[in-house]
Design goal:
The protein is α/β, with parallel strands linked by helices and 292 residues long. Helix content is 35%, strand content 20%. It has 9 helices and 9 strands. It has helices at residues 8-16, 35-48, 78-86, 98-101, 121-124, 128-143, 155-167, 197-215, 221-233; strands at residues 3-5, 24-29, 53-58, 92-94, 147-151, 173-177, 238-246, 260-270, 273-283. The strands form 2 sheets. A 6-stranded parallel β-sheet has the order 1-4-3-2-5-6, with helices on both faces. A 3-stranded antiparallel β-sheet has the order 7-8-9, covered by helices on one side. The radius of gyration is 20 Å and the shape is globular. The termini are far apart. The chain binds pantoate (PAF). Residues 28-30, 61, 64, 132, 135-136, 154, 157 line the site of pantoate.
Length: 292
């Protein structure tokens, strides 16, 4: 049985009356659930076992939307989401109203993502990661999980959440789950629902670019970026916001002489829809130009 609760009191009661003796995992979402979210739920269940408790939060967090991003147009389908989660054996769905999460109105004290919030995705969406971390911080406090599960598709978000937990002393394990893709390679995202057939075809350039970049890993960091960039340049329907090869822990861009495991991140717009994707790349270190 899945308990669907909307208030803090009902959430606390649902958490405390769970018959299981095991651990608790939370999956935080903004709803409009697709099969990628359901894989996060499966990972949550695996993490806590059959007697553990799996909690899914559904909340479209206004704090992480910029003034020019359409919060009202974000897809919402609570009954459809609950049906999907019931079929996946979720114990508790917490779907609060804005006033429940932010009872004092928009918060005056928020979590800052610091420098991490100002680069790459943060540079495109000022304040976004502050909004994400503020709500993640609150939802961790409200749901009190042992494990919190996040998708690797939002790589910078995942790293920011790991820093939140480290820097602000949350006693929770953060579990990253690999990106789920459609058969054609497009990373699953609630925003894919906005794409026309042509835009979807154009959007495939992102995963193709990442594949080309990964294949170029043995030729060094510059070749990774050049190969990915060449694929994107062939598709005028994609306006690239950034393409970057970064350190997987700091999200800082790596040097051309870098060797080791890096993340290749891409973000772009197809029509008015923003798409993000990333892939891990093994980069071979090449001697710096001019050195013998
Ligand atoms: O990834 C998301 O859906 C959101 O950023 C999150 C983590 C649920 C916070 O609102």
């Amino acid at each position: 049985m899945t308990a669907v609760v909307h208030t803090r009191t009902d959430l606390a009661a649902a958490l405390d009356t769970h018959p299981g003796t095991g651990r608790r995992a939370v999956v935080m979402t903004m709803g409009a659930l697709h099969s990628g979210h359901l894989l996060l739920v499966d990972a949550a269940r695996d993490a806590v076992g059959p007697h553990g408790q799996v909690v899914v939060t559904i909340f479209v967090n206004p704090l992480q939307f910029g003034p020019h991003e359409d919060l009202d147009a974000y897809p919402r389908d609570l009954p459809g989401d609950v049906e999907k989660l019931q079929g996946r054996g979720v114990d508790v769905v917490f779907a609060p109203e804005r006033e429940t999460v932010y009872p004092g109105g928009d918060p005056r004290v928020t979590v800052s993502a610091g420098h991490l919030g100002t680069i790459l995705e943060g540079a495109q969406r000022p304040g976004h990661f502050d909004g994400v971390l503020t709500v993640v911080h609150k939802l961790l406090r409200l749901t009190r999980p042992d494990v919190a599960v996040f998708g690797e598709k939002d790589a910078q978000q995942l790293l920011a959440v790991r820093r939140l937990v480290l820097d602000l002393e949350h006693d929770v394990e953060i579990l990253g789950v690999p990106t789920a893709r459609d058969d054609d390679g497009l990373a699953l995202s609630s925003r894919n629902a906005y794409l026309s057939a042509q835009q979807r075809t154009d959007g495939l350039a992102l995963s193709r670019a990442l594949a080309a970049g990964r294949a170029a890993g043995p030729r060094g960091a510059s070749a990774v970026l050049a190969s990915a960039s060449a694929v994107l340049a062939e598709v005028p329907g994609v306006r690239v916001d950034y393409l970057a090869l970064v350190d997987p822990v700091t999200v800082e861009e790596v040097d051309p002489s870098f060797g080791g495991r890096a993340l290749l991140l891409v973000a772009g717009r197809v029509g008015t829809t923003r798409l993000l994707d990333n892939v891990a790349v093994e980069v071979t270190a090449l001697p710096e130009e001019g050195s013998s």
